[in-house]
Amino acid sequence: MLQDLVKHHLSSVIITGAVAAVSAYVLWGGDAKTWRKGRLRPSLENLGNTCFLNCVTQALSSVDSFHAWIENILLAQCQGEDTALIITDEVRKVAPMISALFDVFTTLNLATDGSQSTSLNKVHTAMSEHGWDTLFCQEDAYEAFQVLITSIEREARMLLPENSCKPIPSPVQGKFLISLECMECRSESSKKIEPFDNITLHLSKKQNISLMNLSFNSLRDMLTTYFSTEKLSGVECDNCTERHGVPVKCDFIKHVKIAKAPKCLCIQINRTEWKNGVMEKNNQHVSFPIGCLDLTLFAYKALLFQKEDEIIEQEPAVSRPVEGYEVVRTYNIKDKSLSMMEGLNYTLKSVIVHYGTANAGHYVTYRKLTDNCWLYASDDIVRIATREELERQQIYLLYYERQTVPEVLSQRCTTPPHGDTASNCTTPPNCDRMTPPELVGAAD
Q1: Which is it for strands 345-356 and 361-370: parallel, antiparallel or unpaired?
Q2: Which residues does residue 401 pair with via DSSP β-bridges, in sequence order?
Q3: What is the distance between the alpha carbons of residues 92 and 410, in angstroms, rounded to a whole number?
Q4: Distance between CA 433 and CA 237 in Å, rounded?
């Protein structure tokens, strides 16, 4: 079964590659070297069932904030020196994972004709030093991503002692603000902050669309479900109790909002299901925005006015927490360098796809080079891919990178769509916008 699947996958790769070659011949003429030169990036050798790590490394190689994180850690440990960044033997000994990833990311972003290849030998060695022996074992790409994050953070603490410099936060680290609102008096009782480094979404059991026995989900709908409110019953409300003079239990609404947005947003589509005690893979298709993903609807309002990495606090609003919730400082709008209209926008940088079953298969990566150019990377195969090809894939992991204010402003269209009388269009082209009407203009 698996052999047939791999043969089918390789056949698809060969056919798609042939189509791309013919298209290139038509567009650029018969000189293949002219077409390929500088259009591709190096491939990665498969060291024995290592596609799970190859795909994650290729995916992260297109995320600028992830590169900057590693480079800033290395730069911080050699502050005060007048020389350029040089990774010494001592640094490689203390931080083998950071050093290896810095080297491989540099290589994977070199323009090439597709003939250059490299390997993750040093990365695998570093994983072994951190207690993860993965060679010749089929592993999960998401778990590999978590191992990389954990290993980098551990080595950063060894390279950069807390008393010597300010910690360099991970670009995938964000924070949720979870609050409880009384449905009777509409007061907010308790809040708590929860850190996150990814958002895991579950496929809908109810098929949204059925066509040719294929099921479809929308990333937008899945995110809406993830951030939807939850009703909690039998919770004592301080405000109602104070008003009535006796303990009053009410129904509460639980809200989850993004309080600190990560620079790099990792979204996992959980495709594993258990049926009759057997683990199976859910092959439902998920549509997703390739251009811009707008999360303004899911952001805590004060976040939209924050400077980068700034959390603004004021005194707690209540003194006694609800069970399971701690009293934390609430947020106050302090800096208005961003307007509500700019929102919280992300750009897709890479996608990881899994072919196969719940127990075995193969991982590939689609990584972005430019707005109109994507690469398909499958171990030692790297080729040009189209947006249409990417849209058809069964996505497993998505890596979005937060847009800066200039990027958001540059994407605004100047011509009002469909005869709109507004002077400007605030929605970037190809943007999966999720802003509710009540937030528009709220900055004023």
Answers
A1: antiparallel
A2: 264, 347
A3: 40
A4: 35
Encoded tokens for 410: 């540059």
**In the block, which residue shows the tokens 């390739």?**
290
- Give one DSSP letter per residue of 367-401, joined into a string: EEEETTEEEEEETTEEEEE-HHHHHTS-EEEEEEE
Collapse the DSSP code of 196 into the 3-class scheme (helix H, G, I; strand E, B; otherwise coil) and give the result: strand
| Residue 308 identity | E
Strand 230-236 relative to strand 381-385: parallel, antiparallel, unpaired? unpaired
Residue 361: other Cβ atoms inside 10 A: 17
CB 262 within 8 A of CB 173: yes
Q: Which residues contact 27 (CB under 8 A, 6 or more apart)?
A: 35
Task: Give CA–CA dist 202/221, Å, rounded.
Answer: 11
pLDDT tens string 112-140 = 887 899 999 999 999 999 988 765 567 89
Write down the residue that tokens 């979404």 correspond to.
201
DSSP per-residue letters across 218-287? EHHHHHHHHT--EEEEEEEPHHHHHHHSS--EEEEEEEEEEEE--SEEEEEEE-EEEETTEEEE---EEE
Which amino acid does the sequence have at 419? G
**Which residue in the block uniquely carries the two structure tokens 């030093």?**
129
Q: Which helix (H) or strand (E) holds 301?
A: none
Query: Model confidence over 154-187: pLDDT tens digits?
Result: 999 988 876 566 778 999 999 999 988 888 888 8
How many helices (H) and strands (E) in the chain?
A: 12, 20
Kindly report the CA angle at 394 between 390 and 396, in degrees rounded to 5?
Answer: 105
Reduced to 3 states (helix: H, G, I; strand: E, B; else coil), residue 363 is strand
Distance, in Å, from the CA atom of 233 to the CA atom of 247, rounded to the nearest integer, reads: 15
Q: Among 292-296, 408-412, 431-435, 439-443, name the one with the lowest average pLDDT.
A: 439-443
